[in-house]
Amino acid sequence: MTLDAKIPSGPLQDKWDKHRFDMKLINPANKRKYKVLVVGTGLAGASAAASMAELGYQVEAFTYHDSPRRAHSIAAQGGINAAKNYQNDGDSVWRLFYDTVKGGDFRAREGNVHRLAQVSKNIIDQCVAQGVPFAREYGGLLANRSFGGAQVSRTFYARGQTGQQLLLGAYSALSKEIGGGRVKMHNRKEMMDVVLIDGVARGIITRDLITGKIESHVGDAVVLATGGYGNVFFLSTNAQACNVTATYRAFKKGALFANPCYTQIHPTCIPVSGDHQSKLTLMSESLRNDGRIWVPKRKEDVTKRPETIAEEDRDYYLERKYPSFGNLSPRDISSRAAKEACDDGRGISATGYGVYLDFADAIKRLGEDAIRERYGNLFEMYERITGDNPYKTPMMIFPASHYTMGGLWVDYNLMSTIPGLHVIGEANFSDHGANRLGASALMQGLADGYFILPYTIGNYLATANIPKVDTSHQEFKKAEVEANEKINRIMSIKGKRTPVSFHKELGKLVWDKSGMARNEAGLKEALQRIPQIREEFWSNVTIPGSGAELNVALERALRTADFLEFAELLVHDALERDESSGAHYREEHVQPDGEAKRDDENFAHVAAWEYTGENSKPIRHKEELVFENVKLAVRSYK
Ligand SMILES: Cc1cc2nc3c(=O)[nH]c(=O)nc-3n(C[C@H](O)[C@H](O)[C@H](O)COP(=O)(O)OP(=O)(O)OC[C@H]3O[C@@H](n4cnc5c(N)ncnc54)[C@H](O)[C@@H]3O)c2cc1C
What is the sign of the dihedral through the CA atoms of 405, 406, 412 and 414? Predict the structure, then answer.
């Protein structure tokens, strides 16, 4: 299969403008004739659904939540990047483009990333117009802070609740369209499958989470905005309901899955405290603007109270190793540095897997009130969870699964390898290469939803020649039967173990063998173990109740079943990518100073996997990455 990314020709700066001009338009009266199904109403889905409806398309939107406001996007804390250069500190579209390509360890498409940087400016204007309460300077201008992997301040924020405020903006835009009858909103409906007719995406199958009813929905195009798969590790900073089902089912229908091994481990989360936990909590990267990360220099000091450890006995390891970026080094690098210190026996916390994030200097310099103003809600959240007051004693943090750069492969138009199936936000393999920079996910999700998809989907609809079909078509009936059969099969097992216990076992295995560091032996071991866990799941899982009612155990079981297959794909990808790049750290490929060692000759490509059937190894395809504007270089933050 040849993967054509359809990147427009011409100079990088002009590609998007030229493409917008070249794409076919649909006149306003004709837009009403097309229906688009949008699955997912987080930032990406809500912004796309609202924008397309405002343009005039009929839109139906779906979420398994009881309201779009509950999407995981609401959890985003720190901020959203944009190349506005309000600080006059040297930022530009080009610098944001360059930082993102470099931050992703040169494993992203130049064309897409440049477009993202261009569009970033429009996002801020759009959100301000909606009334998103971004932080402001004394004089009224929007404020910025710094995030990892950048030496300029380009992150716009609303205290530590940026995702919530942006989502309220997108949700109000969506509500206007719902009120106007242009969006039909389906809450509490979970997508079970994509329906293809003659190889083209024409609809979806959903399960009503309240009644259990399986239903068909038809449209002229389908958009997946269903978020990331970070919960494959069980413990992660994602909301518990986040899952891979929508994208994995699309993969099984023929959409290629790109770079599944690129998963982001965030350096600043509250450490695991025991076996009882079902979720981890992020402490936003924004805290690294003022917090200093350290561990004791000597192993014997790890059990001492931090206040009693003298300045000269502390190792501010990020400032030491990466003086140019210091505590704002990118996430993959900062996470590995924390692991290295803990592996060296200098980790703090009861488990030995923790490092300090210390605000004492910032409080001395700026005063407690200034710090409270910037991070008050995060400090409060930390205190509620740990019982420690971070104004008085350093936070304890450790890396945890947080975001997934991998996702369904899409071309420049955000369309997958299934015609008509578009994928946006964290669900696509996106613009972040092997490592996403902080505050760039919100930027990408909203760029896709507000400014890119609404154009490109018009071109698809105008040129695709889509015949009329309805849900009585045999492909819908077949998919409904399959969805019901799967539910009946899982309900009839009546074994002894809960779905959560399987998810937990899988997550620990994937974390241990394919988490922050990976090696060939471990990955091969995981490939042996995953099918065994899967086999036991299908003979020993237990789910109370029935499929014809609200049944959260059933929801969890169906999602876990997909994780049990998807995890194997992730590990295959990690094994075949025999290099270290960004967050994918293969212990066999390390520079003399411990940094990740890329292999540009053999791996400067996107790996996109094709489903070949149950228990059969998927096929790996390549999209070669072409770098014409950025020189491939060893990534250095020293
Ligand atoms: C704790 C935390 C903090 C973060 N902070 C930041 C930050 O400060 N800045 C930043 O840039 N990024 C941040 N991120 C990342 C960012 O929040 C996410 O990448 C982004 O919000 C994802 O948006 P989305 O719209 O793609 O998906 P989501 O917000 O996850 O939405 C997914 C939607 O799909 C629906 N859905 C999923 N599957 C189905 C299905 N099968 N059927 C029906 N509906 C389905 C869900 O109901 C939901 O509506 C953070 C992430 C975490 C975990």
Answer: negative
Q: Are 359 and 291 in contact (CB under 8 A)?
A: yes
Q: Say if pTM beats, i.e. exceeds, 0.85.
A: yes
pLDDT of 401 strictly over 80: yes
Give catalytic status of residue 331 as yes or no.
Answer: yes
Ligand 1 neighbourhood includes 390 CB (under 6 angstroms): no
Which residues is 586 bridged to in the sheet? 518
CB 448 within 8 A of CB 454: no
Other CB atoms within 10 A of residue 604 CB: 18
295 in ligand 1 pocket by Cβ < 6 Å?
Answer: no
Residue 318: give its domain's CATH number.
Answer: 3.90.700.10
64 ligand 1 Cβ < 6 A: yes
Residues 484 and 424 in one domain: no
CA of 468 relative to ligand 1 center, distance in Å: 33
What range does the domain containing 546 cover? Answer: 474-598
73 CA from centroid of ligand 1 (Å):
4
- Are 221 and 422 a contacting pair, CB within 8 Å? yes
Residue pair 471/217 in contact by the 8 Å Cβ criterion: yes
Among 207, 288, 331, 559, which one carries the catalytic annotation? 331
Mean pLDDT within 467-471? 97
71 lines ligand 1 (CB under 6 A): yes
